[in-house]
Amino acid sequence: MTTPSRFPEPYGQGSGANLADILERVLDKGVVIAGDIRINLLDIELLTVKLRLIVASVDKAKEMGIDWWETDPALSSRARRDELTRENAELRERLARLEELALEPGRRTRAPKEAP
Amino acid sequence: MTGLRYVYAVCRPFGTPLQAELTGIGGAPPALLHHHGLVAVVSTVPEADFCEEALKAHLEDLDWLAATARAHEGVVDALTTVTTPLPLRLATVFRDDSAVRTMIEAREEHFRSLLDRLHDRVEWGVKVYVETETAESAESAEPAPSPARPASGRDYLRRRRESSHAREEQWQRAERFAHGLHERLAERAEEFRLHPAQNAALSGARGQNVLNAAYLVSRKHSEEFVELVDRTKDEAAGLRVELTGPWAAYSFTGEAAS
């Protein structure tokens, strides 16, 4: 749509905006389009996480109920969640193995006993 | 030098020319690429900086990133004064103009519906800080009248409880204020987004950031919105309210949520 003239700027351009304000917008927001130069999105996510470590004071934000990134799969808790899932699976497996051993009739009763 | 096409934003055709002195990334002047009734705002960037490998390395360099981010935002900001741009994420790069045209064709519908939703709207950033100087002086002032050494273990524990209680109370007050402010502002905005709080290391701002929100407001209602924020600035002692904007609607280019 055509706009006949410039909009008034009563408040000054980006007044008071700091680097964090700009980065959180241009890196994290905005329309995402895969261009011809495919920057590995994983790298961007890593960078975003790194920045977030600097940018976000997580505990305070959480206290405020600002915790949207908790559900953002690219951010923060994913690695932790994956780690827990993996550990969980491993423990289950070990438990299953132990139960198997314990229930195996041959081993359970005879192992400690000496052969006659 | 081989050049790539860097796309800053997509918008509808606009009548007002951009400032002649406007420069984008690397000092290159942005150009308008008209296609299918839409405009991509582009500039040429050196392939040496924006090929995959170089870009990957650059993105890890905070100085390069900061300069590029400011240049990107500078162009988007200039567009915001003459139209409603859809800002693209940093470092959206194509081989040439024809690749940009192909991209526009592929996303035409999406662009149009976003442009409709955001038409004549801007984003305002509102942050609330707890002034830590006040927090510290309040803390240090409190135990001052009592003797340097607690008279007993019980005394010591009581004092520690009181001090952490005072801190806790201050945070609760800040939280109540921030929530209240957010509710009032959200009522006046069409949409909002809550961003993670910022740390002073990058923002360079004083105090502890406890609210970092973005509000989508029509230009028509922006003055009223700004006045409302201004009025709250003196409401709470020890807290600071900061307003940034008007920004292009960066935070609202995804799915409509709130």
From TrEMBL, chain A:
One of its GO terms (molecular function) is structural molecule activity. It is found in: Gas vesicle. GO terms for cellular component: gas vesicle; vesicle membrane. Residues 74-104 form a coiled coil. It holds the Pfam family Gas_vesicle. Its main location: other. The keyword RNA-binding does not apply. Keywords: Coiled coil, Gas vesicle. The keyword Coiled coil applies. Belongs to the gas vesicle GvpA family. This is Gas vesicle structural protein. The lineage of its organism: Bacteria, Bacillati, Actinomycetota, Actinomycetes, Kitasatosporales.
Automatic annotation (TrEMBL), chain B:
Signal peptide: none annotated. GO terms for biological process: gas vesicle organization. One of its GO terms (cellular component) is gas vesicle. It is found in: Gas vesicle. The keyword Manganese does not apply. The keyword Chaperone does not apply. InterPro entries: GvpL/GvpF. Residues 134-171 are annotated as: Disordered. Keywords: Gas vesicle. It comes from the Bacteria. Coiled coil: none annotated. Residues 134-143 have a biased composition (Low complexity). Its main location: other. PANTHER family: PROTEIN GVPL 2. Belongs to the gas vesicle GvpF/GvpL family. This is Gas vesicle protein.
